[in-house]
Amino acid sequence: MTRRLLKIAAACTLALAALGPGQAAAQGAPGHPDWPGAGQLFVGTCYQPVDRSREQIQRDIALMRQSGFKVVRMGDLSWDYFEPSEGKFEFATFDWIMDQMHAAGIRVIVDIAGLPAPLWLHHKYPGVNLVTQQGNRLDAAERYMDNISDPDYKRLVARFADKLTKRYAKHPALLAIGFDNEIGNGYMSYSEADRKRFIGWLKNKYGNLAALNQAWATQRWSRRIGDWDEVRLPYADGPGAYERLIDLRRYWSDVTVGTLKDLEAVRRRNTPDKPAISNLWDSAGRKGFDYLSTYRQYANYGAMGFYPGSPIGSGFEALMMKGAMSTPIWFNEFTAGGPGYYGTKGRSRMWAHFGLLLGAQSVLAWTYNSHLGGEEQGLFGLLDHDDRPSWKLGEFATIAADFAKLQKLGFPRMTQPKVAFAYSFDNMQATNPPPADNNTVRPYITTPYLTQAHNAFEPLFKDNIDVAVINIAHEDLSRYSLLVVPGLYLMDQASADAIRKFVGDGGTVIMTALSDKVNEHNQWFNTPLPGRLTDVFGLRTNEFYNGGTLMTKIGDEEVKGSIGHYEVLEPSTAQVLARFSNVDGTPPSITVNNYGKGRAIYVATAAQPQIMGPLYRQLYASLGIAPGPKTPDGVYARTVEGRTLYVNTTGEAKEVAIDGAMTGVLGGKQWTGTLRLEPLGVELLAR
């Protein structure tokens, strides 16, 4: 470990000592000296040995060791492998596998396989079965068809977790514990028991029927609730009132978070010296859950399955999982191949280095063995279907060799971003209503929330600037100099208070159109808009139009937008920074208002890179934000301890201007004036 890294580790130890339970980050955390931290990178795979013979397992492990793998993730999706019938636990084979991993020098993330539940559990405890909106009880036809709110499920998964963690708590191969693979990707259920549990949740939230009726706007359409038993579960796929739908989503989010907290309690009791590194899926479309306001209660590292598409969307989602944690990102499942039937050579290596730019610490290939059957039948792993090692195994061996070099040179990156993006589960739900008829459609939501978020993120990411994606109501904003609020349609009181304080204390905020229109109940404000922040931004806006192509001028730069939605801003104390030049009356396109010690900037259109980029560039100097290395489109870079890692995410060669002569740490070639990156190529340059 370099002297600089030792200093970083020491500083992190001091900072972490002030954090409460569940908030301790990994680097040098008190009482957890073996948690992965600075100077450690991990390459490995997800391994499911449930249908492998001992001979095959020994051969698999030998190939893993030969490839330089440091870690495997095991146990996920395999509850009945450990508990084939209720109360009957079988660990002997897994004991042997753990011993074999340890002998090979490979560490293990043991996943508590709470999803899916075994068929014996569904058979004996039918409350675990899902019920549709139409009242039909469903068999567990595919994974994740489990009602995790059922008391029998909760009791039995807690017992299973207790048995599993106690069994391996002291095993020398154990690195970490994972909870419920891809939790968030399940389904909502509509049984009578679910309805009663939902009513209990509503009673706890609202206290009385008067408050519930007000929150749900039941005075409309003759929907007043006169008795708690009149409450019914809203239909997730519509039709239905928006106020009820968002509470339904919140309820199921709380159920999911409650499950994770229960498992975390087991981990703390039985394996307190091993962190929680779980393959979570908070953004799953079926259900999802509110991760960014709760993660410190059950996660020590942001961890996820990383199956990237575009660099912008994939980078944003990875940073969503990191949140404000100081620990690195773990890719508990990682793309092994790419689009197409078998994969693209070099693609996994490129994305692995792309992850390092973001602050990732691990890549665990999904998956090691190709799947012969099951729901992912035909999925190609690092070994082909006949157990022959494919080129993919060789590529991951190359990644392992790369990481072995880089972990001595300042990786994983310990980021300290000065820019934060506001994201919330509630807002995501509020802007994604179910299908609606013409009487309930909302034409003013012209741009999906994540499209706005990605559009606002893109220019900063292309300028190679680190950002954090956080729930602003639950984090300390004083560490940031710029806060970006793209299309935060639902503005709860806590978020509004956080923005107000941030700006008042000297911060700069940029908020875009479609923001601050509804309150926490998903009802429009009855005040001038933006509803809770009109004074902070020094304006009101009540008119919404679609103007086609929008033209404006930011500084000396003529800008043509691609999204036509705009709001007519009426400044009070705000000053106009730019105007639309091709809209009647040339209304303001961007305003700035001095509030307290800071400034609040409002963009009158939905976030789009063409507008956000020039605006950011006008602000960098005053905010002390320095763009990273200059790169051509599709190439991303970060400088770490004087060396610069470049990643070409495109399928064509790229030439990057560099200053003077430099040497490639990975490729060994010297470059002067220009670095040539092959398609999907990566390189770390040093002087």
Question: Layout of helices and strands, plus pairs?
Answer:
Blueprint: H1 3-16, E1 42-46, H2 54-66, E2 71-74, H3 79-82, H4 92-103, E3 107-112, H5 119-124, H6 151-168, E4 174-179, H7 192-206, H8 209-215, H9 242-270, E5 302-306, H10 311-322, E6 329-335, H11 347-358, E7 360-366, H12 391-406, E8 419-422, H13 425-430, H14 449-462, E9 467-470, E10 482-485, H15 493-504, E11 508-512, H16 534-537, E12 539-546, E13 551-554, E14 557-560, E15 565-571, E16 575-579, E17 588-595, E18 598-603, H17 609-623, E19 635-640, E20 643-648, E21 654-664, E22 670-677, E23 682-686
Parallel strand pairs: 1-2, 1-7, 2-3, 3-4, 5-6, 6-7, 8-9, 8-10, 10-11, 11-18
Antiparallel strand pairs: 12-15, 13-14, 16-17, 17-18, 19-20, 20-23, 21-22, 21-23
What does the model show?
It is a single chain. This protein has 687 residues and is of the alpha/beta class. The chain has helices at 3-16, 54-66, 79-82, 92-103, 119-124, 151-168, 192-206, 209-215, 242-270, 311-322, 347-358, 391-406, 425-430, 449-462, 493-504, 534-537, 609-623; strands at residues 42-46, 71-74, 107-112, 174-179, 302-306, 329-335, 360-366, 419-422, 467-470, 482-485, 508-512, 539-546, 551-554, 557-560, 565-571, 575-579, 588-595, 598-603, 635-640, 643-648, 654-664, 670-677, 682-686. The chain has a seven-stranded parallel sheet with strand order 4-3-2-1-7-6-5. Strands 9-8-10-11-18-17-16 form a seven-stranded mixed sheet. Helix 6 packs parallel to helix 9 (242-270), helix 11 runs parallel beside helix 12 (391-406) and helix 14 crosses helix 17. It is globular.
